[in-house]
Structure formats: structure tokens, C-alpha cells
């Protein structure tokens, strides 16, 4: 089940640089762990913004919230979630039903 | 070069049903032609909306506009375009630079 | 899997009254059929608006879109979808894990 | 009398962790007390947000304000209130008037 | 139980003048009937707008929706409802609790 | 001359509790003084918000600004002002012109 | 008593040209009559928009609404009203209180 | 004197094709005439939108409004105007003041 | 050349009172100096807001930015600029072209 | 490949003046270096705002993000990016295809 998730990061301008480096390292490690699991198949940087657009592939709303709320940067993010479904023009449908 | 494109469709409620069937058939054929070319790798339906979220992979801004402005539904769409770049946490980078 | 869905209805002011009566009757019948199935456990009227707030309980994003896009009033609606998860303070959790 | 209430929580990023733990514990206890009373029949987490969507069942506007303004997190919340009424398609009406 | 209600009227510019005169006459009569009942204690024109700000005093959300949805202009209105409670600085409280 | 005034209060979360108690006491005293004068005939709490909706009855725009800008909480408020006029359906007009 | 008033005009694109010429002529005549009276001291065109920014000098909210609601283009306008007061830095105050 | 101007075009979906072809031809001719004069040095298409971003170089606000309001598509456009000034980091300043 | 300028002031709530008094005194002196020059013909307080609406009469966009960016309160302001032109209904035109 | 980029700068009001002077000097040097390379052909100040409107001419989305994210002021900016294409009315096309 797919979801589009836009994450905007707002770090306090006076954040201690060691604290910042640590949280960013943990964020990257956690993100890569979830990507490796197959539940976070796409992550792109939005040009000119401290934001990403991601696609998640999870079993439930609950699982998506559990992943997102454990992001080390979660307290500093504004997150928008868009549930996705198959588009009737998607050529992947043709391949499945030739 | 990747772009996220959100397309919202607003058809006039009194559109002639034959005109509507024709434009939707041409939209689907055109979309599938561009998908087959590889320039439109993803298209998803946004749940509960007459909208799609798509990813385009094109050589230039100009090419993206040419594709979008030739959509048969273009006169009935509101379109938002977000240029995308590689995200530093993307595990695809690890594979390329192991 | 729960979703909150807000539906705002915008009928054209010059809609034929028979056409309107027919579509509203079909909307009600369809809504009640889905409610009876258990997939639409709550529907409330928002005071002072031609809108409802509903809770859906479905197996997937795809199923939710299929239900919503088959609403007879779908072409006249603006719909917002909010995926829901369990709240950690919900007393229902206490009952399940006493 | 039903109300839909959306609560968005914004804690200061530099909040002391003991202060935070204390306020969250008091929030949970208070919420569960009101839920147990029957006046707060539903509380759901909005996926990807530090927010909840709740349904309240109270005797008056005044009672709803009294409950909400006593939430320990009230000073840190943005709250939207939507008064609800019975929807004419609700199958619960059929059961009452068979 | 008090509610502030803002009503914005949007009549189609090509509405037949007899139809318009009839609906406005019925709106005025209905409004004055509800005002006389005591459930609509205040109605003010917002300067420069085809809008009113009103205060309703009703027994329930349901009653408020029933009144508003029966307004002859209801299909042409955008309506915002704000539930009200007693303000702790209101001097009327002093009079009640001297 | 009537005005609807919506006041939203935003106190800094780390405001000293004595400073806060003092400013709230002065706000209440000042508000009640203006209410007693007849220039502030209504003040209501907006449910679930640290906000009020008020009606002022003053001789001029200038007088309204003087009252509002002297509110002890003025530096912490966002204020919206809506000038009001008589509504042609107001039954008070019938009483004046029977 | 001064008010800033922004008026945005939205004429239907298919308005009959004679009807349009007539309403614009009446709008201009009426506007100039009120300007001559001294109650509409300033009217400016907002560059690139079918809009004006005006200053009105009237005795009451009621008078302002009466002027605006009698504009021939009133049914085609969106109007925003901002009540104005004297600014403490205005040098006109120096001249009055030298 | 420079201005950035964003023009969004909204043609009625049922516009007669000859009327549309004529207005678009006149728009193009007029635009190119002003471009040739030097007062409209840049015009770009915004990707995926029926919109342009333009830079105008004119002697006055009045001249800009005269140019824009004579655009054949003016009645179908939403226009935003941003006055521009020299940026202190512009390297053109270095060339002028070496 | 005229411009309407709306300035909203947002001072930090914990600004030192001497610093504040000093900046406000400098703001007033600077504003009155520009007013005296004739380039700032109108300044009004917006009722209930820490905001002003002003009219500037300057030779260029550049001059307007120079004036605004030297305001002592500039770092604390949100500023909106609207370029103005002559309105065709302005009676001042009649006087010039009798 | 052209992009319009709007950058709004929000410096904390209590930023140390030496830190501020240093970051502004680095911003200017970096901006001028990119301008000199030809990838940042236009930069304009938006009148009355601590903002610029710029045109970038780069080979890819990735290159644009790399330039923008290395701006010393990047952590203090809100940035909007609009991809641009050739406009069919641009007279530069005539010159290329006479």
C-alpha cells in the first residue's frame, strides 16, 4: 500500500552543532534501515528546500505512523501524507492483464 | 532529471458524455505512450480525488512542458511541478559508491 | 484501517430538479449499502454546511478510493482524506492490554 | 451533542525533558478520565502528525470548552472545533425508525 | 447555547429577477420568524459585503443545522459556524454572582 | 456604531507566571471597565481557543483603536476588525418602524 | 472617519457588451457623484488588476455600507474594508498641535 | 524601472475556437510589439501552467498598467506585479563601479 | 508615482524596553523626515493592528526600496507593496481635462 | 535551462552583529562567484522585502539544488523554485527562426 509523504525540516537556527550532527547521523541511519527493508522505496530532495518527497510501501496506516514518528527529526518536521492507489492509465496494469 | 507533478482534473459538470469519453480515451492513450517511452516512470491516483501524482524523468524543463501541455486534459487541469534532486540518504547512492 | 474523510458537496445551482432528486436518491442508497457492509462506520453532518465528516474502515487505500470514486455525487465533491492510527491515550488499548 | 475536534500539538523544541514527561503523563491521565466518562468517545492519531482527531459527546458548548481548556497541553495546542449533527443517510436512523 | 454564524451569499449573476425577488422575500420572512422565536438574537450586515454575522441561541447543534439548512438562500451561501461559551471577564458573570 | 472584533491571544510558553498573572488581572479589570461603560456590549469565548469574539459600540474608528491598543494583552494578540451595519431583515427595524 | 476599501471586479466573460457599457457608465457617474460629495477622497487603480484601492471619509459604518452597496458593480465585486485611525507619527498631528 | 509580472490565463472551456484563435493571435502580435519596443525584455513560460513570468522595463507604474490592461487576454488573466530594485550583490554594480 | 504600502510590525515580546523606546523614537523621526519631504503623503493606523497603511509618492522603485529598507523597524516588519496608477473615474482627471 | 527562484531571508532578530556581518559577506562573495560563472544571470531585490527574485541557468535540477543549498544564508531562507521554458511569443524565437 503506497503513500506519498512530504517532509519539511525546520531546525532551530541556534541548535548546537554536535547535537545537530548527531541527530542527522541517526536520521540517515534510520532512513537507510527502513529503505533497505523495502518499506521506503523512494526518497527525493525537493530542489531549493530542506524537504524530501518520499514514497512508502507499508501494510497499514499504523505501520506508516510508527515509521514516521520514530524519525529522529520527527519533532522538527512538518509532514503531509497522501494515500495513493493504482491509476487506471498505469501501463503496469497492461503488463499484469495483457 | 526527475520532477514530481501533481495534476488535478476539473471537468465541467455539463460536459457532453461523448466529448468526455473521447478526451479521456485520448488522455489514456497519450499517457501510456509517454509512460512507454520511459519519461513518465510513475503515475498514482490520489485517494478520494480526481488527481494523480506522477514522476517524470526528462532531459529538460522544456521537454517537461511539451509533454504536459500536450495532455488532452491540459485545459482542464491545475498542475503543480516540483523539481527533484538526489537525496543524500538515498541508499541508491550507497550502491553506486560502495 | 481507519480514515477520516471530509466531503463537501457543490451542486450547480441550475441543476434540473429531477436529475438532482435521482442523484441524491442513488447517493443515499449507495451510502447506506456501504454503511451496512461495515466499511463506513460513521457519517455526520457538519453544522451549517453541505458537507459530511465520515470514518471509513477498509482494508486498503485502493478499497477506499474505489468506494469514494463510485459515490454518485463524486463529480460534485471536494474530498479530503486523513489516514488514522491508534492514539496511545485511547482507553480501548487499556481494555485490550489490561 | 457531537463535536469533531482536531488538536495539533506544538511543544517548544527546547522543553526540559522532565517537564515534558510530566505534562504528557498528566495529559494522558486527564484524557483517559474524560474518555471513561463517556464524553470523549473517540480519539485517533493523524498519521505522520503530532495531532489527534477526536469526537466529543457533551451537553453544551460550555462543557466542551471546559474540557478542552483544562487539557494540560492546551497552551501548546492549536484546536479546531466542528459541531456535528445527524446525517440524513445515517443507517442508525433506519434502526430508530424502521 | 450560543453560536456565531457568518453567512456569505453568492447569487448567480444571471439569476432571473423574479426568482431572485421571491427567494429574497422568503429569506427575509423566514429569518424574521426565527428571530421572533428568540433563537436568532442578533443579525448584522458586514460592511461592504453581501454577508451577515449572526448570533444564534439554540438547544443543540442539530437545531442550529435545521434552522440554517432551511434558509431559502442556503444553496447560495458559504457558512462558518463558531461555537461560543461564556468569557470569564464578562461582567454579566458579576451580576449573576455578586 | 458596531464592530465585531476577534482577538486571538498568543502568550510565550516561557512567560513568568507572576508576570502572566499580573497581565491577566489587568486585562480583566480593563475589559470590565470598558464593558461597564457600554462600549463593549458583548464578549464571548470561542470554544477550544484562547480567543474571544466581541462586539464594540463606539463613536468612531479612532475610539475603537484607542480601546484595543490599550488592552494589556494587545502586544500578544492578533486582532481582526469587521465593521457592522444594520441588516435589512433585523426585526429591530420593524419595532422602530411599525 | 476614514476607511481603506479594496474593490476587485469580476465581470462574467460572456456579459453582453451593451449591458457592460451601461453598467460601467453608471458606475463611473455614481463614483464621481460620491467623490464630488467629499466622502470618497481617493481612488487609485491597482496596477495590472481590475481593482481599485479607495479611501472613504464617512460619518458611520452604515453610511459606508450604503455607498458601497449602491455601486452598480457591487454584485460583481469582492470588497475588503479596513477601518483607519490617525497614526501617531503623522506630521499632520504636529501641525495641529505645534 | 523593472517589474516582475506573473500572468495566469483562464479561458472559458467552452470558448468558440475561432474567437480563441483570434484573441491568441492578437495577444501574440501585441506582446511581440511591446517586446520589440524594449519595454518587455523577458517572457518565460512557467512549466506545466498556462502562465508566464515576465520582466517589464518601463518609465512608470502608469505605463505598466497601460501595457497590461491592453493585453487582449487581460479579461481572462490573473496578474501579480512585483516592483524590483537593484540587488546589492548584483555583479552588474561592480562593472559600473569598478 | 504612487504606491500603497502596508507595514505590519512584529516586535519580539522580550525586547528590552530601552532598546524599544530608542528604535521607536528613531522610526518616528525618520518617518516624519520622509513625510516632510513630500515622498510619504499619507500614513494611517489600521484599527486594532500594529500596522499602518501608507501612500508613497516617489520617482522610482529603487527610491521606494531605499526609503523602506532604511526604516529603523524594517527588520521587524512584513511589508506589502502595491503599485498604483490613475483610476479612469477619478474626478481629478475632470479638473485637468475640463 | 532556466529557473525562477524567489528567496526570502529571515534572520533571527537577536543574531550577533559580527556573525551577521560575516554571513552576509560570505553570501555576497558566493553569489557573485556563481553570477560570474554565468549560472545566475539575474538577481533583483523585491521592493520593501528582504527577498530577491533570481533567474538561474543551469544544466540540471541537481546543479540548482547544489548551488542553492550552499548559500551561506540557506538555513535562514524560504525558497520557491519555478522551472521555466521558452514562451511561444518570445521574439527571441523570431530571431532564431527568421
UniProtKB/TrEMBL annotation, chains A, B, C, D, E, F, G, H, I, J:
GO BP field: beta-ketoadipate pathway
Pathway: Aromatic compound metabolism; beta-ketoadipate pathway; 5-oxo-4,5-dihydro-2-furylacetate from catechol: step 3/3
Location of the Muconolactone isomerase domain: 1-90
EC number: 5.3.3.4
Keyword Zinc-finger belongs to the record: no
Catalytic activity: (S)-muconolactone = (4,5-dihydro-5-oxofuran-2-yl)-acetate
Pfam families linked to this entry: MIase (PF02426)
The entry's keywords: Aromatic hydrocarbons catabolism, Isomerase
UniProt family annotation: Belongs to the muconolactone Delta-isomerase family.
Name recorded for this polypeptide: Muconolactone Delta-isomerase
Amino acid at each position: 500500500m503506497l503513500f506519498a509523504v512530504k517532509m519539511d525540516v525546520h531546525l532551530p537556527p541556534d541548535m548546537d552543532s554536535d547535537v545537530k550532527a548527531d541527530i542527522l547521523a541517526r536520521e540517515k541511519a534510520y532512513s537507510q534501515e527502513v529503505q533497505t527493508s523495502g518499506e521506503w522505496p523512494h526518497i527525493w530532495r525537493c530542489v531549493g528546500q530542506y524537504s524530501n518527497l518520499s514514497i512508502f510501501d507499508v501494510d497499514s496506516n499504523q505501520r506508516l505512523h510508527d515509521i514516521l514518528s520514530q524519525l529522529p527529526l520527527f519533532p522538527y518536521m512538518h509532514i503531509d501524507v497522501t494515500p495513493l492507489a493504482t491509476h487506471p492509465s498505469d501501463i503496469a496494469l497492461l503488463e499484469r492483464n495483457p
